Fold each of these.
Amino acid sequence: MTSPVGLHRVVEPVGVLPQAAWRLDASPRVGPDEVLIDVERLNLDAASFRQLSEKHGGDGAAVRAEVLEIVTSRGKMHNPVTGSGGMLVGTVRAVGPESPLGLKVGDRVATLVSLTLTPLSVDDGLAGWDGLGEQVPCSGHAVLFARSIAAVLPDDLDPRLALSVLDVCGAPALTDRVVRGYAAPTVAVLGGAGKSGSLALVAARRAGAARTVGVVPVAGERERLVAAGLADEVVLADARDPVGLSAAVAGALGGPADVTVVCVDVPGCEHGAILSTVDGGTVIFFSMATSFAAAALGAEGLAADVSMLVGNGYVPGHAEFALGLVRAEAGVRGLFEARLAAD
Amino acid sequence: MTSPVGLHRVVEPVGVLPQAAWRLDASPRVGPDEVLIDVERLNLDAASFRQLSEKHGGDGAAVRAEVLEIVTSRGKMHNPVTGSGGMLVGTVRAVGPESPLGLKVGDRVATLVSLTLTPLSVDDGLAGWDGLGEQVPCSGHAVLFARSIAAVLPDDLDPRLALSVLDVCGAPALTDRVVRGYAAPTVAVLGGAGKSGSLALVAARRAGAARTVGVVPVAGERERLVAAGLADEVVLADARDPVGLSAAVAGALGGPADVTVVCVDVPGCEHGAILSTVDGGTVIFFSMATSFAAAALGAEGLAADVSMLVGNGYVPGHAEFALGLVRAEAGVRGLFEARLAAD
């Protein structure tokens, strides 16, 4: 039996998880619970591409050569400097008889687990890529484990829109679950006009929030979020300013929020989020800029009896849930499409 | 009206919380919801004292002078290099009529909020301290806000034992709350022989855990924890090794834990804790060495549907709850007393 988390694919050092491994076995033999993907494109993590591009002074051929060297030597696209990977798009070539992922041959999928733990082999030398952008067209194969996550790309949505939604699909699913744990709660979303923030706002409303407020840092975002109609209130505040933020949230909701969702990707928002949340409430931190110590010590220093959740990017059914929100809510879809058009 | 979080005591920069302030107003005028403490001793944070002692090459007089300079210039004992403070012990001198803390004049108390946000003034030049240890006998006063936390020192326990318990009292209280959210769950405590870990183990058992396992890194701790009788099983494993740890936990509990409590203060325990926890379970991270990103990305990479809580050091009633456990559980008390005797 193969390991559901892919331990059998770890070549060195033996015994660690695939993400921590230096090298994976990317051979196309499919274990009983594995899935083999024909890869058509890699989306490199933004931090990884930036590091490579800066290292080589924007020389696309050199960037391409290094990406190829990483994949060849490690059996995965795991940037050793940034520690990050990305995701991939491809088509299912083979499905082991015991795979629990529900995929079938021919499905066009995007992987929702990081490339840093996904066995990958490239067979075209990345000839179709100029090395100048994060989107890497390529030919090769990749392997999913029993506990990997992949989403079938929908026929009815622009693939770029779908990928953009799938990238943040954990946020609305976890927001939905937390909001349903309260009776008609008030909900504040910091960074409400962003990708994860706008999805969290509509998820909260649909999950039974009595009142929602989207907090944004600049007037342009306020206008866009008001026009999209996703929140009962939209307020302008700096999420790094605990006093100003909590006053703005309390003003909009009639008191501190029952649930506060942090989708602002800048450091220093922990104390403001805690101070904006009522005793007995919950703060969900989705921002990767969150400091564990600032959150833990901040709540203690404020004698704040709030539950603080690390925003787990995985909730069962999260991909379909997020895509469903974008289909049903024209306001969210409009924000995503405007962002894609501006890229 | 004064601010419950002490904004009215912030001198500069104006508008930030007391912890973020450079300088606080430590005047002994008591606001309507404040409490004034006659200070008898400061317990400097270990990291803060170490930094000061190393900076001055162990010269106690120089360390003493710098601590005095910090308190005088900042109105609080907030080490500007380490960013840390400590706690204090003293006696209540005055209580504002609207203070919600439940303290009365003459109570001997320990503060459970950091010295980094506590207005403090010293009036004896720290003459009774040699500058060679973290315990600073002194004379002066300090101020508590409405949302500060202080515990009355019990008459029936050695003050050193009580302080040692109060230092980690958030862990058993939050463990109790989380375990009660499940029906007869299995519970794993990583670092089960330590201060917070041993308290979490007995809290879990009393809250209705069906089976508990304490995980420890070395044989000596295993012997001590087995002898204390706090867990159904005690196993030896490196919490930084996800595969070994999860196998050890599953072996002891008959499968992954419903609740995993991380009390190991070393980096790199996130993936092991997640892999040791069943889908639908909860991981509580009490270790200040926890990486937010490692937890968030690790759960996603493992497709683990686990709730991950930032271990909030404040839960209402946490001090009395922890002291009660130590009174009632000879095994825990023995571990604490052995640790104090070894200091």
Amino acid sequence: MRVEIWSDIACPWCYVGKARFEKALAAFPHRDEVEVVHRSFELDPGRAQGDVEPVLTMLTRKYGMSEAQAQAGEENLGAQAAAEGLEYRTRGRDHGNTFDLHRLLHFAKERGRQDELLQLLYRANFAEERSLFTEGDERLVELAAEAGLDAGAARAVLADPAAYADDVRADEREAARLGANGVPFFVLDRAYGVSGAQPAEVFAQALTRAWDARPPLAHVDAGDAGACGPDGCAVPRS
Amino acid sequence: MRVEIWSDIACPWCYVGKARFEKALAAFPHRDEVEVVHRSFELDPGRAQGDVEPVLTMLTRKYGMSEAQAQAGEENLGAQAAAEGLEYRTRGRDHGNTFDLHRLLHFAKERGRQDELLQLLYRANFAEERSLFTEGDERLVELAAEAGLDAGAARAVLADPAAYADDVRADEREAARLGANGVPFFVLDRAYGVSGAQPAEVFAQALTRAWDARPPLAHVDAGDAGACGPDGCAVPRS
């Protein structure tokens, strides 16, 4: 079974939801047969690269919250994160464009290091004092290397704005096609969609439901073709 | 869309079928949104590691063919391969256990180099004079390095019989569950199965059919949960 998770590094509920989903997955009897794939979703695609502002400023400016409301929202998210054993800095975080982060995650996927990098990016954005957005590419290269990727190759990906850009956009088109308006958005075997950072029990039920519902294959009947089996290789009658 | 291809390196129709499928895929309008995954299938799982014999000997001994029949079969396969632009040695090839090749392919998958290695293994087995089965691990390490993998890491995988063994077996269990009796076996989005090295036109039709039939997701209705979207991050009402 395959679970695709659309999310953004700048999305606190994605950070929390990933932990809740992983708790359910760890207890799922068929967990070894579940493959998890990260998919790209940008919460703020219109923001220019390099346009960075504090999260609290963004919240008050963009959504018209008072500073106290914005801070209370962050405190609530911090408490939800803590309940999942995650660190969360409720003050001093930055907000910025995440397109390059998603490009780098697609590069990491190709190299089998996607989940390692995703975890490090979440941690860097939500738990660490250093900003993920103001130190330029070298900070990301450092995280890529920590995830087991080649630093030079990661640097080259970041330096080329076209690298993996189509993969990010394809994920975003697919999210729209599947009806996702927000993230995290979980898709199980392309059959069931789950929206939001649901409690682990909801993910556990969805995993069981999707597992039990896997349909039998429709075998395309296209006539004899060459094939090999335990009794040797058969040549088609023509 | 995702296409999984169950196959064995020792399977001539898998070698031919892969080329036919790729021809159809290259002409498919949504080819950039198709992900192809190799899945393991052993044609001769009971054969001991290191038990190597010439293909023609195996065919006469195991299936009771005459030498002329076995050779004619190989000539036919050679002609089918040539029609797809593939080299195929109809004499002097070896047959052996492929479990370690599949383990190595799973390692390559984790490192984003699976298709590169698969192509090199097919080529080594069907087109090259050197045997894939009699030169020990170093021959495979060489091919892994050519596929872009780290030679030391590939050597370590081959030296540890447990490495990726569960992945190979999981693929084989899944093939059985999906009703595959032989290979190549193509599964499109876990919805359509296509058996054998079908002509490219059959693969083209199957790709179109599977693409058009992608069902809408069933959204699991689990109540409000924290999520972020273009309008900010919503906290669930509880």
Amino acid sequence: MDSFGFRILARDGRARSAILQTPHGEVATPVFMPVGTQATVKATTPEQLREAGVSLLLANTYHLYLRPGDEIVAELGGLHSFMGWDRAILTDSGGYQVFSMRSIREVDGDGVTFKSHLDGSTHRLTPEKAVAIQERLGADIIMALDECAAPNDRAYSRLAMERTHAWATRSARAHRRTDQALFGIVQGGIFQDLREESAQYISGLGLPGNAVGGLSVGESKPEMHAVLDWMDQGLPVDRPRYLMGVGTPADIIEAVARGMDMFDCVLPTRLARHHAAMLRRGRLNLLGAGFARDPRPLDPSCPCYACRHFSRAYLRHLMQTKEILGATLLSIHNITVLETLTVEIREAIQTERFSELREEFRKETPVPDPSSCTG
Amino acid sequence: MDSFGFRILARDGRARSAILQTPHGEVATPVFMPVGTQATVKATTPEQLREAGVSLLLANTYHLYLRPGDEIVAELGGLHSFMGWDRAILTDSGGYQVFSMRSIREVDGDGVTFKSHLDGSTHRLTPEKAVAIQERLGADIIMALDECAAPNDRAYSRLAMERTHAWATRSARAHRRTDQALFGIVQGGIFQDLREESAQYISGLGLPGNAVGGLSVGESKPEMHAVLDWMDQGLPVDRPRYLMGVGTPADIIEAVARGMDMFDCVLPTRLARHHAAMLRRGRLNLLGAGFARDPRPLDPSCPCYACRHFSRAYLRHLMQTKEILGATLLSIHNITVLETLTVEIREAIQTERFSELREEFRKETPVPDPSSCTG
């Protein structure tokens, strides 16, 4: 575990700015990870991701296990080599995808049996197997198999939490690679006692990092914020804290304010494929006729390749003609928006101006007027 | 016309290596132009095209006239500014696309009336209008409206040729912008007398460049080569010669051997979207199961971004999962193959080894074995 470390550089309230050391470089936190579901962050090259400031990305174990298969990835030197990405990678356990497919999986105390969405073939995922697959994929950070319940269902939340705990213990026992950090995941829905119990259990495993699962799955913002407040109390301060599946600029800021360090979301790349450019606050739908003659970049203050070289009018043309370059440029831009935001957050924490930054984002998010919004 | 020039650096047989001076930089010929139909070379950024060695690209007047409209492009500073490409651009006249749609156009001596493939609206293209649209688009090189007949139909070939001549004269009269070069187009099907008459007529207009149209549209290779031999006789040696719609490495080499300088084709980007990687000779279909564990690059000698960073196994994975990055990487590779080929051709001409290079390509093109082909 020498290749890992977590060094807090500064605090501002409960927000922290830190360096997460990995075998593939230092990751400054708070950090946003774009999602490379199938070992590619959709529509972008690794070179474009580097330029956008990405230092850590997420890949999906479920998808890579099914195709091309973790053994093939291992044969080709592991995920970094396979996808041409020499910075850090985190893989999820595969559980989230499996549990999302209610109709084609059956869970028991030992693991989960599911059918492939590709060909209907039957597969079995256990904590040990999720670790073994992730060891073959070879990411820097891997996740213990967990079960994510509907956040308001107390009985199911307890059951899923208890399984998650047993599975985390088994995952920790099964994990062998010393050049990978295994993170445990806290569950427990929106229930304080469960969340506190879960944080205590997962923390007790002494893993190099801890994640908060089961959020951003339908609960309200106040509910999410309450859970994060309990997490800040319950999780060790000297280890990175990863809030899974979040999100928007405002959600990231509020989670950082509650001591969270790591974030992932498909939002920037998914929005890009649906004609939407993220702004620091708000969005632009590029199909809007108001952009047809708009010579301005998406955001004049954005340093990304798309904003340096192309007008909204050109981007709208690419959207209208369904050209691939449109998805590429919006993906680069949207990822850059979130990476730039985390740079800003880290600087604000280091200079004790984080509460000002937070205040700015707590004002109501403006609905941009396509013809006048300057980002 | 001071911003244009054509300076022959070396000859080897009838092949020539030259510099075509344009307002957007020098273009070394023989040159291959990738096609940016809708003001984007599909699936690539301008940055990737620069890196692939592209110095001149083609955009389609028909498509840009319909969407976003030449007036919008002009308002946004012209095509270079619109698409973020600061090297040279050539636009076609729009005629080729219009004449391809037999069912929805009517041609007369004055021009052609057609229906938009997008919304069925009726439009009229005349030589003067094709020039006006291209002046608004603002490419470095623009083309006179021509009519492309079925290559074996003598009566239609004569009629189309005569219209093409009249339209070229009208185009030359209509053309005003001195920072654009207007090229005329020779027609005449596969008929020697018509081709010779056409070359004489078009040459007589004294335009800064001449193109050969009506080839690569169904005629045999010997027929194409015969036409090119007549063109080499009939067209002025001191002006660039553009063979429209060609093509493959072998076709380019044979045309260079007959004194042609400029080439365009959708092949590299179209193949890329259909899982095919071009090799210097032959192709690889990346969906082949034989590539699933192949750690080699597409071509170990290729300098492109895809070959420097990714294995055939990864590219196959991207094809299988229909990821956009697959089309991007294969497009970069395929364009690089043709750009690299023209570098090689120019060097061969300059060192009087062109006939050796040609000989190599005249050998039968190998059918690659997916498991053993090393390109």
Amino acid sequence: MNFDIHAKDTHCNARAGSITTEHGLIETPIFMPVGTAGSVKAVHQRELTDDIQAHIILGNTYHLYLRPGLDVLNKAGGLHQFNSWQKPILTDSGGYQVYSLSGTRKIKEEGVTFKSHIDGSTHHFSPEYVMDIQRIIGADIIMAFDECTPYPCEFSYARKSMEMTHRWLKRCCDRFDSTSPEYGYSQTLFPIVQGSTFKDLRKQSAEVIASFEREGNAIGGLSVGEPAELMYEMTELVCGILPAHKPRYLMGVGTPANILEAIALGIDMFDCVMPTRNARNGMLFTTQGIINIKNEKWKKDFSPIDEMLGGYVSTAYSKAYLRHLVISGEYLAAQIASVHNLTFYLWLVKQARQQIIAGNYAAWKNKMVQQVMQRL
Amino acid sequence: MNFDIHAKDTHCNARAGSITTEHGLIETPIFMPVGTAGSVKAVHQRELTDDIQAHIILGNTYHLYLRPGLDVLNKAGGLHQFNSWQKPILTDSGGYQVYSLSGTRKIKEEGVTFKSHIDGSTHHFSPEYVMDIQRIIGADIIMAFDECTPYPCEFSYARKSMEMTHRWLKRCCDRFDSTSPEYGYSQTLFPIVQGSTFKDLRKQSAEVIASFEREGNAIGGLSVGEPAELMYEMTELVCGILPAHKPRYLMGVGTPANILEAIALGIDMFDCVMPTRNARNGMLFTTQGIINIKNEKWKKDFSPIDEMLGGYVSTAYSKAYLRHLVISGEYLAAQIASVHNLTFYLWLVKQARQQIIAGNYAAWKNKMVQQVMQRL
């Protein structure tokens, strides 16, 4: 994996770059649509490439491990072959899902024992096994196994958890570095900074993570309920420590405003279920602001969903039609809204990149945050 | 509306033709995907044109009347404008849904009073009002308001019901002929033959319906639970009476075998929810036979869904991936299976048309029925 920085903004820490993988180029800053179980919900793969213009998508280790399972994925030749997505894939480590979805789980030094949310069966994830799983899934970028602490979190718990995450990282790296890719293309491992919302823990964790000298670094444990200002504060602090010549990935973030603010702090990569999950509830992100399409005011609004954004889905269908589909519980509602929202997210980071290259990011960002976050 | 017959099979009553409407040409025999509430479930409009190659889709008067409602549809400029489908549309009369979906309904000579399945509100459909509604929806082909009898059905009830359907038809025609289209393009009205599974009633009904001399004729009240042989027998009898130079539409039919057999009897138009409804349950119709994709045998079958059929959806995704999506309850499962099944149905009638033109329909049909109905 290579990371090249093409431009830096002079008024903030935003940068425009590109990550080269064996499955293609990722222009940064980038938003990565979430394809939990090997499918970005309600979106065809060709829509990801042709309409949304995604450069990379996510897969979830926890979900893919449980279903379709490692035997199927391995026999298929990895996730790219299995789901017919030939561009880059990043897999999370499954840590977050083990804590959030699994009813009962026991976290020990050795690893985590948990019950499947599907059938209640018992499973064990160790840092080593999670590396093996992600080797089999075959993502281009794989994530270290960590504990994502909730918010709020006691200092003592956050410290102990962070220290274990660091020890687990050592085990992840040892396993990753002593094994080879399964399918002939290279993979890279990103470690994850933790430390909850405590400055000294975040500083300590960023230093430890940086010392591992991996090809890219991630920030986890944010966007879990804390105020946005606290998230920005932690992100700024950590970005000041993580090496500037490597990509920085802020996990699970966020709203359009969150993304634009974090880009200004030096973040290059984002993922979030918000554009797809909210789409399924009728919430649209548009170039003009946020729309709750269920509102009566859209009932007879026959204008396109987002003419400025362009593209088939956002211009062929009207707001009134989409409202009707959402209220009628039609599949097509989720399909239209998901493609639209993701197209908007990818448009937003592409605009951000162009503004960074033009040297105008900071000013544009302040205006854009107002524009895209207003309720229509 | 014009109907031209281009070829007739010499060994059976199959014919290849074309219906000209102001929204475009419909090559017959044709299968019409069902877009109940103004959307063919889980399918984008561009997929209907580009992938499935549909010539015409259906809308349901009952559903569209309740949601989005006539004010929205009229303000939009009709259903074509509302759902961005620019090819022909046929609407059923709502009769079938009033009987099957509405909890309580009272059928009288004047019309039907029923309660909405959505909110329990009370509504009244008369033959005249159903014409007015379909004028507002703006379908190219609209259907007469009829009573669809269940199977089995007492002779006396079937006779009385049929006679009322005939009287309603007179009222439909009077209203239709004394009103004008709402949106500048012409509409045509098809009457519906009833008579349950009684030969003399079907004969009588076909004669009455033919005497109205509309531009096309439909056969209703079949495919409601009766044995297939009985459906073919009634269809053959009715096709012998309905004028040969006008299109014949067999409503709500059916399996690939039903369609191929009915084409041989002289039917030109079909609609059915089967390809989309069964898709959502993981049942695939393919060029090689029927697949229950949930079966364990497809778990590691990484071959395309239907290589012979061609097209993005049927060749880009594997059986194993689709199985995984169905079992995981992913939206994309319904999307893939629906586009695939409809692509197959449209392929089947296109093949039938070519065989009729080649003068080889009867022999091809007997082979094809075996092939496409076998369980894989």
